[in-house]
């Protein structure tokens, strides 16, 4: 390693206060803020002029209409529906699928964006499809029958052997080689630091993995696994839940884990799944990352990765297809209330037609994130819900089309997941890993950068001020570290900025009062489903959030509470 520090995107805030930052952000046009310095850009950076690109993200204009209370025309039309679902991410789509499977037909799903998917959305260019967020699942825990059934329906699981172990579709299991880490000038196999790691630190790494293996197989005094997926099936034993009250970094320190290589790896894992550092997530969440998966299969190893070029967009499409006739996109819900008969009154703005309508529903599943719900439910009390307890991590995703990926250090060849030790990002995945073509002239690599060095609100604000060219200044130097001279081979970069990419499982959130209270239905009329009500942003959690809310709707309709 060269020892040269990498530019961290959030260093912009290290030496200036929030007020100063806001003033500067308002004054600077086309400026790039590096640390406490401000540098003017005049057009594309030298050496980047040949690179095309764009900067996109969720519909910020619609979001600002809610946030800034911009006047919206009063509803001109009215309609009724038995069940309304607000939000077309995985939770909302899963809820819709479950209603349909249970014989329900009088329901409608509204989505603000012009597409469904949430952070499982994806893009496509002439070279490949690629993820714009979540990009894989692992083989599932065998007791998760609902998810196993969904995967079987869609031939991700093709059949079961005589021991009832699933066969996973070989085309969807991640092709080898899977992971590599650039460390000490060498590409090693796997992401756990090994090459050049001193013996005493290797022993500490080994001790950590023995510990989380014990946790993986441990059950609480209620007979449930201490850590599992979905998390609400985890043990209520206080011996394990109390780990939610301390940070993961404090837990590691208390237990004598101080190896820089190990701590880097654990920080990487927290950034990868939670968008936050180990100091910013609870010990329960940190251990859950390693100890919640126990899936077994007939034809692959435990924890094997299942992926597609478009990432979890492939799964999203399967969910969407089953309920496509019930979906209306580009529809922004901007107000929810209950009338005197306790019907749910929902005001909706059609972003394409620029008109409003009023929907009266018997039941509503609110499958939007809580920072949105805070705006929608301003007339409805949610006792014990402290929205300030919920912090959402911003992310930058860069899909980079290259005509060649220069060979850099010795060691492992290109893998699906490629990470460099000591850098701000969590690396890139090869979107073309599952291609069957023997010779590829071009490929797309998907680069993931969690913006987690500062408070999420400040990181988000800093991110929104940057231009496409300025993001190139941040991303390309790290790619050059991994692949010297790659710049000349980059043809296009599509940046996607998630201002609220995922919920962060902060200390005392997963098993705290706010999450518990936010999950509660309101008068058996309003039901909630989103991964921020799990505390962990996983496909599996979203899938079950949707099913649980839909089943609550069905149960209350049948007189079961």
Percent of residues in beta strands? 15-25%
Seen as an oligomer or otherwise, the chain set is single chain
How helix-rich are the residues, as a percent range?
25-40%
Helix/strand structural class: alpha/beta
Description:
With 561 residues, this protein is of the alpha/beta class. The chain has 15 helices and 24 strands. The protein has helices spanning 18-27, 60-67, 90-101, 145-153, 199-216, 238-241, 248-254, 260-274, 283-291, 313-321, 370-376, 456-464, 468-482, 513-518, 539-557, and strands spanning 31-34, 37-40, 52-56, 77-86, 107-110, 122-124, 129-131, 137-138, 157-160, 166-168, 179-183, 186-189, 305-306, 327-328, 331-338, 344-350, 355-366, 392-402, 410-411, 417-420, 428-430, 443-450, 490-503, 526-528. The protein has a 9-stranded mixed sheet. The longest helix is centred in the last third of the chain and has 19 residues, at 539-557. The N and C termini lie far apart (60 Å). The model is unreliable at 1-44 (pLDDT under 50).
Summarize the structure.
It is built from 15 helices and 24 strands. The chain has helices at residues 18-27, 60-67, 90-101, 145-153, 199-216, 238-241, 248-254, 260-274, 283-291, 313-321, 370-376, 456-464, 468-482, 513-518, 539-557, and strands spanning 31-34, 37-40, 52-56, 77-86, 107-110, 122-124, 129-131, 137-138, 157-160, 166-168, 179-183, 186-189, 305-306, 327-328, 331-338, 344-350, 355-366, 392-402, 410-411, 417-420, 428-430, 443-450, 490-503, 526-528.
């Amino acid at each position: 390693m060269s020892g040269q520090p990498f530019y961290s995107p959030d260093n912009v805030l290290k030496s200036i206060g929030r007020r100063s930052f806001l003033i500067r952000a308002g004054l600077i046009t086309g400026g790039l803020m590096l640390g406490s310095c401000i540098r003017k850009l005049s057009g594309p950076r030298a050496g980047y002029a040949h690179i095309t690109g764009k900067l996109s993200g969720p519909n910020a204009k619609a979001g600002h209409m809610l946030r800034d209370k911009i006047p919206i025309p009063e509803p001109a039309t009215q309609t009724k529906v038995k069940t309304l679902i607000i939000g077309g991410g995985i939770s909302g789509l899963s809820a819709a699928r479950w209603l349909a499977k249970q014989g329900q037909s009088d329901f409608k799903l509204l989505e603000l964006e012009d597409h469904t998917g949430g952070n499982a959305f994806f893009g496509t260019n002439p070279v490949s499809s690629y993820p714009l967020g979540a990009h894989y699942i692992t083989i599932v825990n065998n007791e998760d029958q609902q998810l196993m059934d969904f995967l079987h329906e869609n031939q991700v699981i093709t059949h079961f052997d005589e021991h009832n172990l699933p066969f996973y579709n070989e085309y969807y299991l991640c092709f080898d080689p899977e992971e590599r880490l650039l460390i000490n000038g060498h590409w090693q196999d796997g992401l756990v630091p090994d090459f050049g790691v001193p013996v005493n630190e290797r022993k500490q790494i080994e001790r950590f993995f023995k510990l989380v293996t014990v946790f993986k197989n441990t059950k609480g005094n209620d007979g449930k696994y201490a850590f599992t997926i979905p998390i609400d099936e985890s043990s209520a034993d206080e011996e394990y839940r109390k780990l939610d009250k301390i940070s993961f970094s404090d837990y590691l320190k208390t237990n004598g884990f101080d190896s820089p290589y190990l701590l880097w790896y654990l920080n990487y894992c927290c950034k990868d799944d939670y968008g936050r550092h180990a100091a910013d997530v609870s010990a329960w969440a940190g251990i859950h990352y390693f100890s919640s998966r126990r899936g077994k299969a007939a034809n692959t190893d435990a924890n094997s990765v299942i992926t597609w070029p478009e990432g979890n967009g492939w799964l999203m499409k399967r969910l969407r297809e089953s309920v496509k006739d019930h979906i209306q996109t580009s529809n922004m819900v901007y107000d929810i209330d209950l009338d005197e008969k306790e019907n749910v009154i929902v005001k909706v703005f059609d972003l394409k037609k620029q008109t409003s309508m009023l929907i009266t529903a018997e039941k509503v599943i609110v499958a939007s994130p809580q920072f949105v719900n805070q705006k929608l439910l301003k007339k409805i009390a949610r006792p014990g819900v402290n929205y300030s307890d919920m912090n959402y991590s911003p992310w930058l995703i860069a899909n980079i089309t290259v005509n060649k990926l220069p060979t850099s250090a010795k060691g492992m060849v290109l893998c699906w997941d490629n990470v460099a030790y000591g850098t701000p990002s969590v690396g890139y995945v090869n979107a073309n890993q599952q291609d069957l073509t023997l010779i590829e002239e071009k490929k797309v690599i998907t680069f993931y950068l969690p913006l987690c060095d500062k408070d999420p609100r400040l990181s988000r604000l800093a991110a929104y001020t940057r231009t496409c060219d300025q993001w190139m200044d941040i991303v390309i130097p790290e790619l050059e570290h991994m692949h010297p001279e790659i710049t000349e081979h980059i043809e296009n970069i599509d940046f996607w900025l998630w201002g609220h990419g995922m919920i962060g499982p902060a200390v005392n959130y997963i098993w705290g009062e706010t999450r518990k209270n936010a999950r509660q239905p309101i008068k058996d009329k309003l039901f909630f489903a989103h991964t921020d009500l799990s505390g962990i942003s996983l496909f599996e959690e979203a899938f079950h959030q949707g099913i649980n809310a839909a089943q609550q709707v069905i149960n209350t309709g049948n007189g079961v509470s």
